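FIELD: query
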Amino acid sequence: MDPLLVVKMGGSLIGQAKEIITVIQESHRPILVVPGGGPFADMVRSYNLPDDTAHWMAIAAMDQFGWYIASLGLEPCNSLILQKRHQVLLPYCLMREKDPLPHTWEVSSDTIAAWIASEMGAELAVLKSVDGICSHGNIIPLLREPVICDEVDPHFLPFVLSHRIPCTILNASDPTRLSAFLRGLQVTATRVDTRF
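FIELD: result
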């Protein structure tokens, strides 16, 4: 069987969600989708709440986006055991039980997805509406150490590197790029090299 892939689906891709889910459903690889918070988390952010409150409300926002993804044809789940080949995680109950990460806006759904991938021993693909991580206007094709960037939260790269999680950050605004990636083809992206 193909190895499990955790796919973090950024909230900025909500407009392409139907096409992205179709691509995932066509893949033979087992895939667990971790939703971002998207517009639901943006609303939480707008209220300038205390860190603990904002943390849990933002994770609840991930559940909301997750239910939307489920409505497009993926079976929802709330544990790290994949029951079907393709599922979407509703992370709130799991994160309340485990509470593994700091309660700060510097930890986003990107790092939550990295923690999930680490717990499951899985590769991680982070779907964004940008081509990867940039430095001086250029995509970094291969990263071996953390960099300061706007594309992922500040905790993400140190977490991925320290936990040796194979990871690719790619643009799924055009779902054909995700389709190519899932078929093992080379695509424009940033790959995090965790081999020391």
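FIELD: remark
The chain has seven helices and ten strands.
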